[in-house]
Amino acid sequence: MQAAGPLLNGNFEQAPNRSQMNGSRVTGKYAIPHWKATGFVEYIECGAKQDHMVLVVPEGRHAVRLGTDSSIEHQLSVTRGKYYSVTFSAARTCAQSEKLSVSIVPGDASGGELPVQTVYTSSGWDSYAWAFKARQGVVSLVIHHGDDQVDDPACGPIVDAVAIRTLNPPHATHQNMLINGDFEEGPYMTPGSPWGVLVPPMDEDATSPLPGWAIMSYSKVVKYIDAAHFRVPHGSRAVELVAGVEVALVQEVATVPGRSYRLQFSVGDAGNRCAASPMSVQVATAYGGKRVSYESRGTGGFVRDKLDFKAEGNSTRVVFYSTGYHTTSDSSGTLCGPVVDDVSLVSVSHPHARRLLR
């Protein structure tokens, strides 16, 4: 398995044999090269029409559409014990509720359901990330559409541009007790894709596509962005809080009761016309919090701030969330929000930390 990149025929440009199709529907289980199709699966070409709607293909000329209780499956060669993140694009095609889930077989969990009801870009589709820990050297990635509350069995999301990346989580240090505080380690981003990758909420035991960080929400996401297409305060990656108070970025870290700590971070905008006066992020621990405001013109920039607190327990949960809801100023309805980056936590009594804080 490659360290990062598209799966074999992950963009579905290698077409099924026409003898194993009925119109756009795939009738042969192994008709799509490198994939196994189950249920009502269609092979979609860019510009195809459904009633009066033109179907959107996220990348290239072709994609697949998953109808009611259908799935696509791809076998992966991985390294046992390693962590991986899967990225793919999805677009809704019907007015009904569409439920898309991802799982690994064999695996310890049934997988995660992705919240595809909210569209975060004006294009009509989004890229999502999902992660897992490999329990065996050969596993199967399954993307499943399981909604049975629809009138049309063909109704379901379009899926395209499936890729994978090996995750290499950094370690906490005296210089930063937080893991991946600069967000440089995260899911695969397709080169040239200007829309970022959505990281959905996860169960507490789930593997995070953003190592060290959990996304806490009922149905909303955060957006992972890169410096090639957005303004990023530090390095090449950051997180944009696009769903207001409905989602929080969280990390739990071991602390010593009675010891003082300093949390430092950057808050800004992604340079994507997300203008707001002000744009605010709530930063919190169990022992204190503050609201950090940033006057955004939507052209990039950030402020640096800090939160000092004294721990009272053996662990401290660090939380970031946007206090408001924002859309870009181009009237497209694209959801946006404040950017969080370059987060560090140090004990102010540690000699390494004292040097850093001077």
UniProtKB/TrEMBL annotation:
Name the UniProt key words of this record, in alphabetical order: Cell wall, Glycoprotein, Secreted, Signal
- Key word Secreted present in the record? yes
Q: Where is the composition biased (Polar residues)?
A: 11-24
Per the database record, which ranges form the DUF642 domain?
A: 6-165, 177-345
Localisation per UniProt entry = Secreted, Cell wall
Q: What InterPro entries does the record point to? A: DGR2-like_dom, Galactose-bd-like_sf, Pectin_Meth_Modulator
Q: What is its main location?
A: secreted
Positions of the UniProt region annotated as Disordered: 1-24
SUPFAM superfamilies noted in UniProt: Galactose-binding domain-like (SSF49785)
The protein depicted here goes by the name DUF642 domain-containing protein
Q: Which organism is it from?
A: Triticum urartu
Tell me the organism's taxonomic lineage: Eukaryota, Viridiplantae, Streptophyta, Embryophyta, Tracheophyta
